[in-house]
From TrEMBL:
<dbReference type="InterPro" id="IPR000653">
    <property type="entry name" value="DegT/StrS_aminotransferase"/>
</dbReference>
<dbReference type="InterPro" id="IPR015424">
    <property type="entry name" value="PyrdxlP-dep_Trfase"/>
</dbReference>
<keyword id="KW-0032">Aminotransferase</keyword>
<dbReference type="GO" id="GO:0008483">
    <property type="term" value="F:transaminase activity"/>
</dbReference>
<dbReference type="InterPro" id="IPR015422">
    <property type="entry name" value="PyrdxlP-dep_Trfase_small"/>
</dbReference>
<dbReference type="Pfam" id="PF01041">
    <property type="entry name" value="DegT_DnrJ_EryC1"/>
</dbReference>
<keyword id="KW-0663">Pyridoxal phosphate</keyword>
<feature type="modified residue" description="N6-(pyridoxal phosphate)lysine">
    <location>
        <position position="184"/>
    </location>
</feature>
<comment type="similarity">
    <text>Belongs to the DegT/DnrJ/EryC1 family.</text>
</comment>
<dbReference type="InterPro" id="IPR015421">
    <property type="entry name" value="PyrdxlP-dep_Trfase_major"/>
</dbReference>
<keyword id="KW-0808">Transferase</keyword>
<protein>
    <submittedName>
        <fullName>Aminotransferase DegT</fullName>
    </submittedName>
</protein>
<feature type="active site" description="Proton acceptor">
    <location>
        <position position="184"/>
    </location>
</feature>
<dbReference type="GO" id="GO:0000271">
    <property type="term" value="P:polysaccharide biosynthetic process"/>
</dbReference>
<dbReference type="GO" id="GO:0030170">
    <property type="term" value="F:pyridoxal phosphate binding"/>
</dbReference>
């Protein structure tokens, strides 16, 4: 029997430890970018295994600053996925550059390297790969494409804190961009961070986030107010210490659901060998000929199980992108189109109890359509 009124699809986990560190910051009087931000940056760099991290106000800003720092400009093309949150592509538009959409793999939902190759032109300057739902994209072939064609690699790691590809944490291959929005694997409320081994890029990004100011009231470039606060960073320092345990619980929850969801027509998430999938979302595929997804969502919601479709509309079909000319004749991403009609996210967050997991799997298995 379900003893819960509802099981949310996501639930940030904070404790007295976060409250205590916020109180310490408030008492210090240093609320904006200060020593806590720099401590968080150092801790995050150590965790990912990179030389430098640049903390900013949110994950979208991280992408924007990274692209600006890398010199992406008007007339450039950047290849990315249409099957993700819109911020990834919008960050390219912020540079007056053109997003070019490559299709995705049917099983991992991540960029298909073969289609990336098909989309390269003389104007292509970079590739933004997204480690979607916590599963790393296939870094090696994408990295090889970048090397062969002289392209920059940006990793959108907003959903993949602590995920690994062949034993290396994501964010350690190209220029990494993370988000700390409340639903992410760790949170700072809002917040983002850029990871890199490039000293010059680090210095430029730090200028860009703080009004182009190299010293007090001395501005060398056009910059922005994209800073992270010490309050955010203090929360991040505490959350980062918990990340591995949060991820361990997410993986454990996903493995339970994988083993116990038996409903015909529901395909549990795929995981490639040699990757660590950290299950930001637990995304099943609904076989349309066996189950009507809308009816299934209504059934789960009625039983108190939170669920959502990530993502119901591919980016190139969003109204603003249609207005920009992304029509059928110049965008060919059939796999992404199909996935938007089939995917469904179920709860997998660390706050789930054993009873929650049993209830979720039992309710699913009892669906009669």
């Amino acid at each position: 029997m379900n003893t819960n009124k509802s099981i949310p699809i996501a639930k940030p986990i904070t404790t007295e430890e976060e409250l205590k560190t916020i109180e310490e910051v408030l008492k210090s009087g240093m609320l904006a970018q200060g020593k806590m931000v720099y401590e968080f940056e150092e801790s995050f760099s150590d965790y990912i295994g990179v030389k430098n991290s640049i903390a900013v106000g949110n994950g979208t800003i991280a992408l924007d600053v990274a692209l600006k720092g890398l010199g992406i400009k008007q007339g450039d093309e950047v290849i990315t996925t249409p099957f993700t949150f819109i911020a990834t592509a919008n960050s390219i538009l912020y540079q007056n550059s053109k997003p070019v959409f490559a299709d995705v793999d049917e099983k991992t939902f991540n960029l298909d390297p073969n289609d990336v190759l098909n989309k390269i032109t003389g104007k292509t300057k970079a590739i933004i790969g997204v480690h979607l739902f916590g599963h790393p994209f296939d870094v090696k072939p994408i990295q090889e494409i970048c090397d062969d064609h002289g392209l920059l690699l940006i990793e959108d790691c907003a959903q993949a804190h602590g995920a690994e590809y062949h034993g290396v944490k994501v964010g350690g291959f190209g220029t990494g961009c993370f988000s700390f929005y409340p639903t992410k694997n760790i949170t700072t409320g809002e917040g983002g961070i850029i990871t890199t081994n490039d000293k010059g890029l680090t210095e430029l990004c730090r200028l860009l986030r703080n009004h182009g100011q190299s010293s007090k009231y001395y501005h060398t470039i056009l910059g922005y107010n994209y800073r992270m606060t010490d309050i955010q960073a203090a929360i991040g320092i505490v959350q980062l210490k918990k990340l591995d345990e949060f991820n361990r619980k997410r993986i454990q929850n996903a493995e339970y659901l994988n083993s116990n969801i038996k409903l015909k027509g529901i395909v549990t998430p795929y995981k490639e060998k040699n990757v660590k999938h950290v299950y930001h979302q637990y995304v099943v595929t609904v076989e349309e000929d066996l189950i009507d997804r809308d009816n299934f969502i209504e059934y789960l919601t009625g039983k108190g199980i939170g669920c959502a479709v990530h993502y119901p509309i591919p980016i190139h079909r969003q109204p603003m992108y249609q207005d920009l000319g992304y029509r059928d004749e110049n965008v060919n991403c059939p796999v992404a189109e199909r996935l938007t009609k089939k995917v469904l996210s179920l709860p997998v967050h660390p706050a789930l109890t054993d009873d929650n997991l049993k209830y979720i799997s039992n309710i699913i298995n009892n669906f009669e359509g």
